[in-house]
Design a protein that fits this description.
It is a single chain. The chain is mostly helical and 70 residues long. The protein has one domain. Helix content is 80%, strand content 0%. It contains 3 helices and no strands. Helix 1 runs parallel beside helix 3 and helix 2 packs antiparallel against helix 3. 13% of the residues are buried.
């Protein structure tokens, strides 16, 4: 997990900004899908980047869960 992502998510949770967390989750998901599709076209190994996006998404989703009542 990225400590930077942890810090960003923690800040949004403290600010009760669930919308920003949702937007960040959608953005990371789009990046992951695009990377996967274009990486496969060019036969690159995108698995390290995909794992990184998955880690970020886990942190973001945990933050959304913590901010349930925001």
């Amino acid at each position: 997990m990225s400590s930077a992502m942890d810090s960003i998510v923690d800040a949004y949770v403290r600010l009760k900004n669930r919308a920003a967390l949702e937007e960040m989750r959608m953005h990371r998901h789009r990046l992951k899908v695009n990377l996967f599709l274009h990486g496969e076209e060019r036969r690159y190994d995108v698995s390290p980047a995909i794992r990184s996006f998955d880690d970020d998404l886990s942190v973001i989703e945990a933050g959304i869960e913590r901010c349930r009542d925001c």
